[in-house]
């Protein structure tokens, strides 16, 4: 079993978050390109729920008919849990402990890194802010966010509105952040911000909270 690393020797942890369409994935990729190890919670969930995924038996037992050879049928599972807090809680009780265990393993594997990044879309909404040292919020003007999201295949005004209801407003996220990365500019400028932030945070452990 993995154990949490010693607080005095572990890497400083960046918690990267941002609302839909703000460019979080792009920024996370920039951190990775600059050598910062990335733990992508969503990618871990996709792996655990994909073909042959470790969570498929438990999910099928709790939500019959939602899995198959290709893994979880996201549409079928979504119908069972969307708008149903109790059912969503049942699913999260299966998924969250497995992701947490993978995260501990990731920490063990990168114990010598000065800085690591947790890519957590719902960092504030799910109460994960206390588990990181530096909260970094990715943000862009609302008009750009809207344009990016509505350009996605299958996205509608209603889906966008429903997603936004589940997320803390961007202004609130920025107010609670230690650092904000602006993606409402060029990729080159955004990359410059990321590089400067890595230089500023590398090896430090700012334990203050907003």
Q: What does the model show?
A:
The protein is an alpha/beta fold. The chain folds into 2 domains: 9-37 and 114-205, 3-Layer(aba) Sandwich (Rossmann fold); 40-109, no CATH class. 48% of the residues lie in helices and 13% in strands. It has 9 helices and 7 strands. A 5-stranded parallel beta sheet has the order 2-5-1-6-7, sandwiched between helices. Strand 3 (67-68) and strand 4 form a beta hairpin. Helix 2 crosses helix 5. The two termini are 33 Å apart.
The helix count comes to 9
The side-by-side strand order for the widest beta sheet comes to: 2-5-1-6-7
For this structure, the CATH topology of the largest domain is Rossmann fold
Uncertain spans: 1-6, 203-210
Class based on secondary structure composition and strand pairing: alpha/beta
Mean pLDDT equals 89
Please specify the SSE layout and strand pairing.
Layout: E1 12-17, H1 24-33, E2 38-40, H2 41-49, H3 56-62, E3 67-68, E4 71-72, H4 74-81, H5 85-109, E5 115-119, E6 134-139, H6 142-150, H7 157-166, H8 170-176, E7 179-182, H9 187-201
Parallel strand pairs: 1-5, 1-6, 2-5, 6-7
Antiparallel strand pairs: 3-4
Task: Describe what is shown at a glance.
48% of the residues lie in helices and 13% in strands. With 210 residues, it is an alpha/beta fold. The chain folds into 2 domains: 9-37 and 114-205, 3-Layer(aba) Sandwich (Rossmann fold); 40-109, no CATH class.
Q: What labels describe this entry?
A:
210 residues, alpha/beta, Rossmann fold, 2 domains, two-stranded antiparallel sheet, 9 helices, 7 strands, disordered C terminus
